[in-house]
Amino acid sequence: MTTESIVSIVLSVITAVTAVAAIVISITQISKSNKQSMFDRRIKIFLTVIGMKSLCEEHSSICEAYINDSKEGPLYAVDSLYLWMTNSSFLEEIQPVISHALETEWRRKYLLKMEELRNMCEETRLIFPDSMGRSLADFILSYEEMLVSIYKYQVAKNSISRECQDAKKPFPRDSELENRCRSVLIESIKNTLKLAEKLATEGALEKIKSQIKL
């Protein structure tokens, strides 16, 4: 075998090894990138849920007061409840919505945030094991439904108030629209508090910590 043949074989081997090494490195980098992406998605959901669960715990007594007051008639300070339950870094941008419920720009921000919560709910079901993701997803969806029910109640109350002002009448205590919206709101508050407590009692968040690893 000539020197030129040996050199050619060696170069071929080196080229093949280099190609294989490049493929291995590429696969490793893709794997790391995927793990990092999964970590980022899981940690965002986890921290968002922690924040909303904390709001439920912090304002549980206030929520219970709203539930009890609902038996006496209209909830005049429901805007305050909305502000308390959106008092987090994730939700703070839509806090002013409750005072500008029908203004286009604020309503748009509110709708986008509600859509983000619904998408987060579906994403949670996909990236966490069923036994863990189900509890998180149920809580996220319930929280979104609670915020929607507060918003709808405020819109209904504003509408009724305008009609009363125009007619120079007091706010009615037997409005069918107000009663229906109030009933939905109270049930959504109850359900959200129940699911927040379930996360705590079942230790779901502690279990999920073990899934949030690179």
Report on this model:
The protein contains 7 helices and no strands. It is elongated, with a radius of gyration of 27 Å. It is mainly α and 214 residues long. It has one domain (37-209).
The helix-and-strand class reads mainly alpha
The largest β sheet comes out as: none
Taking all Cα atoms into account, the compactness measure Rg is 27 Å
Quaternary organisation: single chain
Rounded mean pLDDT is 82
**Binned strand content:** under 5%
Query: Uncertain regions: pLDDT < 50 for 5+ in a row?
Result: none
> What's the domain count?
1
Number of helices: 7
Please describe the topology of this protein.
Layout: H1 3-58, H2 60-69, H3 78-85, H4 104-127, H5 130-167, H6 176-201, H7 204-209
Keywords:
0% strand, mainly alpha, 214 residues
Please give a quick description of this structure.
The chain has 214 residues and is mostly helical. Helix content is 79%, strand content 0%. The protein has one domain.
